[in-house]
Design goal:
- The structure is a homodimer.
- By secondary structure, chain A is an alpha/beta fold.
- Helices cover 44% and strands 15% of the residues of chain A.
- The first copy, chain A, has helices spanning 5-11, 42-48, 86-100, 114-118, 126-130, 151-164, 175-190, 219-240, 256-265, 273-278, 283-299, 313-316, 318-330, 335-341, 345-355, 358-366, 369-377, 392-410, 435-453, 507-521, 537-540, 545-551; strands at 28-35, 56-62, 73-78, 105-109, 121-123, 168-173, 196-201, 244-249, 269-270, 305-310, 419-424, 459-464, 474-479, 484-489, 492-497.
- In chain A, strands 1-2-13-12-7-6-3-4-5 form a 9-stranded mixed β-sheet, sandwiched between helices.
- In chain A, helix 7 links the parallel strand 6 and strand 7.
- In chain A, helix 8 packs across helix 9 (256-265), helix 11 packs across helix 18 (392-410) and helix 13 packs across helix 16 (358-366).
- Chains A and B meet through helix 1, helix 8, strand 11 and helix 21 of A and helix 1, helix 8, strand 11 and helix 21 of B.
Chain lengths: 552, 552
């Protein structure tokens, strides 16, 4: 196997653990805190989790290890989209498990949760693990999006565990996967299987965050990678002085990724979906907001700029959501047949015009044709519009071009507007984890094993005080049920971990809000450059602006 | 001004000079070699450059500096597209100029060659220069694409030089800009203006390369940045195991960038435009070639992959070139009016069908509609198709999808094909220069001043032996006319620097060719990771695979 020089060098990197975990396994004792309750809907959550609800918060300390000596057989899965550092969670878990007892065994179930159903696994050994230390990707065992949520699936998982003598499962995933981890933990407890479940908080989107989880892993590396590129694009814009770059960034519904990238790079504009929603902004208002910056800069002779667009923004525009619902309704089931039978776009357009309400048609008619066609032609297997495929970076630049053309006619704008488009997503999910993510993930995995060893079930591996150096981090565990509330999903009340959106009264947004008017008209770009793994600590060990602002 | 931690750290980096330039200005002597002649069309080139043709190759050595002491006033411009390291060329030039005599003056003309015409400049001082050391971008003075090529322009430039007492101009640019530098040098010599012209070889495209120029600056950093991202995408593909990523990379006509990225990342596929041209491949053949790899991998259970597409490839497909010419002809001048008057795409399509030859219509009809429309709707100010805007990554994935659908019907393919698309270009042109580019560019600039100081005109700053450590690099100069031949451009015979395409019998391509069958069906991805500026030398100081293979 040919590997890159950086990969070879990263094999030698020793991730930093919190001080309390550094003394060796024999020196890790546990300290139990108060009993917990869920963030909301306590009674309902307690009723759903009678065996795992209300457990105590726990913290590890330096001291005599008092856990029971028994052979541990553990299984681990990676669930959902890739995030840098996933490999290190497994490496940390493996190292703690083997340090505790060389006879302990770690199973890796392949391709996500489905590996547990299909009993498709590998057993880790040093040689295999060593190839993945401090590397990006989830290729160590693969990942997948199957959900473990039905009783039938749980029964199969229990069988698989019994067959291999597995007594604990570690689930590395996002909010949904950790919700399912809690449900599985409750099932195992109720059935007295003796199998524990521990979750680890993963997602580049940054939306798995609450008073216990300061940040999900992967967010640091992914946003640094996108910020590297946005910085490079900004520098290019400021050198050539002729293009407006519209940069869409991944991140699903929440705008944490966009906001963090804006804090790192100081672009001229960054839309925040949560603000669009709160202010009930229309597409036209958003386009005017962007056009204002384009025009102001043009008036100063600067016909260039950088605008960051969060992936999920169009879903937050009220009128656009209505349009999408109407389209889904218009083409539901067999109704699509009549539409599909029409030969030309003109005929299809007439069909659409007849089928949409006037309000939605007003929205539809201002969209560029390519987006109009995308809405009707690229639908998912259920016939629904695929919102994530909408090229919103092109949508907004087209709307802005229309606004500017109108202003030109009115004589209020005299500049040139040449937009270019980018989508940053897959480029950052599998980068080599930053030192922060390498350390954080290794600690999460190491810590997850300590929770197993001390017999906890339905807990999330929790590392906190993350804005400080790793030596000051605090290792412990929190019952997953503490983070849950009841939400309406697909017409049913379900216990779930609350997804964190950007808080408009939070410090990161407030900082952005206080500066954005300046950034909009000045050229205040910051160029973070590529992630550095070596060099001065201030270059290679500092985590996100979001976390720094939240903890300041 | 807020700057990033990396930018702050990079200010402290001391670029490495070739040993022969390290002893200080007083210790740099010159050694003249043989007289030169142009690579082809010697008589014609000599006739066009009577004053600057045939000059001697020169090399710098450690020894007594014998140049004449006089106050130097120098102007510098950045020309064309951004390339990492441009700032360091100017820093090296400035440092050599000021070390020689603190009274010397460096003018930076703004926004490219037009700055010389408009007399729009700044005068560099330490404080200003220090903000740009080892940084990416061309924002130090901006760049532009105006060409300096007419006698009228030259006369204005001569006036501007006279006004400021400028006795030398350094032109940092690609093949065209250096060609124009040679023409300007000849003009100045013929007119006895006493103004010297020195060129520096810039372009991320890597197509300014010949027996004197081992590589143009910026190629190293840009390809490392793209390879970082392609590696990350490959790791994502190999983790999720469900997408085929089609990655178009910048690089204009030549495929040097694509090939270097392929050598660094070992994707499943990389098209090489020069090979497409040599083999006279049709779109259908290319699509089949890609579909073969998709099908072979699917048969092994791998419904994912990475394919690199060089930006210029469609121009090299003979049938596609013909199609483009016919479209340009069909819509030339007022003929476009009739087309534009048609209301629907169906009517336009009928117009096109009538206007194209059968052979071109056969090609046109297999294109996805979005590409068909792009060819007809997005034309440049002269009414020509904008080939660079063609989303060839989407074109090929659509053609491959058609091929696979046909194979599925035949029963020869049973996989799933989900393509995703990327275009990497602006993300890499303004990255912080790698240590290689930081050193190389600083040396080019430092060396350019030594050529000025020793009185040379019409020379290219030449640093060679680049596959070795910087201490072993060789500094000198080469008459630009040596690299020239006569080519037919826009119906005229013109003296130009020959553009370097990928040589199909060269070692980089041969290495790729020998390995690509394996890479196509195996998953042999290499993950280079982000450019490192600190750390072990093998991680942060090594240049491209292309150069290593060419010099091995």
């Amino acid at each position: 196997m040919k590997i890159s020089p950086l990969q070879k060098a990263r094999y030698e990197y020793k991730p930093k653990l919190p001080l309390m975990l550094r003394g060796g396994i024999a020196e890790i004792s546990v300290s139990e805190g108060a009993e917990t309750k869920s963030v909301a809907d306590c009674e309902k959550i307690q009723a759903l989790f009678p065996n795992t609800y209300g457990k105590k918060e726990i913290t590890f300390k330096k001291g005599q290890n008092t856990s029971t000596a028994k052979k541990q057989v553990v299984g681990v899965i990676l669930s959902g989209g890739q995030a840098p550092g996933g490999h290190n969670v497994i490496c940390g878990l493996y190292d703690a498990l083997k340090s505790t007892n060389p006879e302990n065994v770690l199973y890796g179930f392949k391709n996500g949760p489905i590996g547990l159903i299909e009993d498709n696994y590998i057993i880790f050994d040093d040689e295999y693990i060593d190839q993945y230390r401090n590397t990006g990707g989830f290729d160590i065992i693969g990942s997948g999006r199957t959900k473990l949520e039905t009783k039938e699936q749980f029964a199969i998982v229990a069988e698989v565990c019994k067959k291999h003598g597995i007594t604990a499962i570690v689930i590395i995933g996002g909010d949904d996967s950790n919700t399912n981890a809690a449900v599985l933990a409750e099932y195992f407890a109720a059935k007295n299987t003796g199998v524990q479940v521990i979750g680890c908080p993963k997602t580049i989107d940054g939306d798995l965050k609450n008073e216990d989880i300061e940040c999900s892993f992967g967010f640091d590396t992914a946003t640094k990678t996108y910020s590297e590129l946005i910085g490079n694009i900004g520098r290019d814009a400021n050198s050539a002085k002729k293009y407006w770059h519209f940069v869409k960034v991944m991140g699903r519904s929440a705008s944490h990724v966009a906001l963090e990238c804006a804090l790192q790079t100081q672009p001229n504009l960054c839309l925040i979906s949560e603000e669009v929603s709160a202010k009930k902004m229309s597409l036209s208002q958003i386009a005017d907001y962007i056009a204002d910056s384009v025009a102001d800069r043009a008036a100063k002779g600067m016909n260039f700029g950088v605008a960051i667009i969060p992936e999920g923004v169009v879903e937050f525009v009220p009128e656009f959501s209505v349009l999408i619902s109407e389209i889904n309704e218009l083409l539901a089931g067999s109704k699509a047949d009549a539409f599909n039978a029409l030969a030309t776009w003109a005929e299809k357009y007439a069909f659409i015009e007849k089928g949409l309400t006037k309000a939605s048609m007003d929205v539809f008619s201002i969209l560029p044709q390519s987006i109009q066609q995308q809405l009707f032609l690229e639908r998912d297997p259920h016939g629904n519009v695929q919102v994530s495929l909408i090229e919103s970076e092109k949508l907004f630049s087209a709307l802005v071009a229309d606004k500017l053309a109108a202003r030109k006619k009115e004589g209020t704008y005299k500049g040139k507007f040449s937009p270019l488009h980018h989508f940053l997503g897959y480029e950052g999910r599998c980068a080599f984890p930053s030192n922060f993510d390498a350390d954080y993930c290794y600690s999460l995995g190491y810590n997850a094993f300590m929770l197993i060893q001390y017999g906890y079930n339905g807990y999330l591996s929790k590392i906190s005080n993350l804005s400080k150096p790793a030596s000051e981090w605090i290792a412990g565990g929190m019952p997953i049920t503490k983070m849950m509330n009841i939400e309406r999903r697909h017409g049913e009340d379900k216990p779930v971990i609350k997804k964190a959106l950007v808080e408009l009264d939070g410090k990161p947004f407030k900082f952005f809000e206080a500066n954005r008017a300046t950034w909009a008209v000045e050229t205040s770009y910051v160029y973070p450059g590529a992630i550095q793994y070596y060099g001065p600590a201030e270059v290679c060990d500092i985590t996100t602006r979001t976390l720094a602002l939240e903890k300041e």
